[in-house]
Amino acid sequence: MNFNLVQRDGLIYYRFPLLEQYPEIVHGVLGRQGGVSHPPFDSLNLSFSVGDQIERVRTNRRLVRETLGVEEMVSVGQVHGNNVLILTTREYQAAGAEVQGIDILITNLPGLGLLIKQADCQAVLLYDPDVKAIANIHCGWRGNVQNILGQAVAQLRAVFNSRPERLLAAISPSLGPCCAEFVNYRVEWPESFWPFQAKPTYFDLWEISRHQLETAGVQPKNIQIAGLCTRCHESEFFSYRRDKITGRGATVIALAEKIR
After folding, report:
1. Residue 217 belongs to a domain with what CATH number?
2. Which domain holds residue 228?
3. Rounded CA gap, 197 and 188, in Å?
4. Cis omega before residue 40 (within 30°)?
5. Quick check: is 32 in a domain?
6. What are the DSSP calls for the chain, one per residue?
7. Best CA proximity match to 46, nearest among 76, 15, 70
8. Cβ atoms of residues 211 and 205 within 8 Å
9. For the segment 60-93, what is each residue's pLDDT rounded down to a tens digit?
10. Is there a domain that residue 260 lies in?
11. Is the pLDDT of residue 1 over 90?
């Protein structure tokens, strides 16, 4: 498990050693505990669109901002596509309505947290230490089929002249090879994915993402996988596959306004 657990202000979250060595990076993978939401969204639900009370979600998000020390957070309406929202100016509505149809968030603005909601899908964090730009990507299996990770690397290169070989990548807790069953994979997935079967009809989505990052130019030594299955760890993470009606956790990354 490539993860450090942190308990602060009643919240439990995890940090990647790969990113912890950079003091200008604030990040955390939030567990499901420490919030105010009631079952079946208990308790740190961070999504407005699952049926939870809006004020409880707002309280949970405030708790996350305060715990991580992030002044503002941006989230979007995720749709398992590969569209990108690039934030390079302060002309955005961090506290307003979510922009719909987005699964890649990119910024170079200090103090702005990029929040990706999860309940089995991966959040993949990218950081360019040379140009100080970050990305947070919502990557489910449909995103893998569309090579959303390659798209995110290409966007960083196009907008910020990032060199893929310098990027750092971290893959959050998500559906593991123990639980990622796809009985219709011959129809849903390209044949190039089929060798990633951990056992018949079960696939290693973590390794698919690693392969796509490496194909995009990210160095193997710069990729870290959490290695925690959200479906298996019921007390720690939300899981749509396990519970269907449930909350959403989140992974957040930001560039610090002040180096701590």
Report:
1. 3.60.140.10
2. 4-255
3. 14
4. yes
5. yes
6. ---EEEEETTEEEEE-HHHHT-TTEEEEEE-S-SS-PPTTSTTT---SSSS--HHHHHHHHHHHHHHHT-SEEE-EE--SS--EEEE-SS-S-TTSPPEES--EEEE--BTEEEEEEESSSEEEEEEETTTTEEEEEEE-HHHHHTTHHHHHHHHHHHHH---GGG-EEEE-SB--TTT-B-TTHHHHS-GGGGGGEEETTEE-HHHHHHHHHHHTT--GGGEEE---BTTT-TTT---HHHHSS---EEEEEEE-SS--
7. 76
8. no
9. 999 999 999 998 999 999 999 999 999 998 766 5
10. no
11. no
Partners of 85 in the β-ladder: 105
> How many angstroms separate the CA atoms of 129 and 255, rounded?
11
Which pLDDT score is estimated for 95?
A: 46
Read off φ and ψ for residue 88, nearest 5 degrees.
-120, -5
Biggest distance spanned by C-alpha atoms of the chain? 49
96: confidence class by pLDDT, cuts 50, 70, 90: low
Please check the confidence at residue 259 and state whether its pLDDT lies above 90. Answer: no
CA distance 116 to 253: 9
Burial class of 10 by CB neighbour count within 10 A (0 to 12, 13 to 18, 19+) = exposed
Rounded CA-CA distance 106/124 in Å is: 12
**Whole-angstrom Cα distance, residue 176 to residue 228?**
7
CA distance between the termini of the chain: 26
Contacts for 66 with CB less than 8 Å, ≥ 6 apart: 9
The number of distinct structural domains making up the chain is: 1
> What phi and psi values does residue 169 have, to the nearest 5 degrees?
-135, 135
Is residue 34 one of the residues assigned to a domain? yes
Q: Residue 88: inside a domain, yes or no?
A: yes
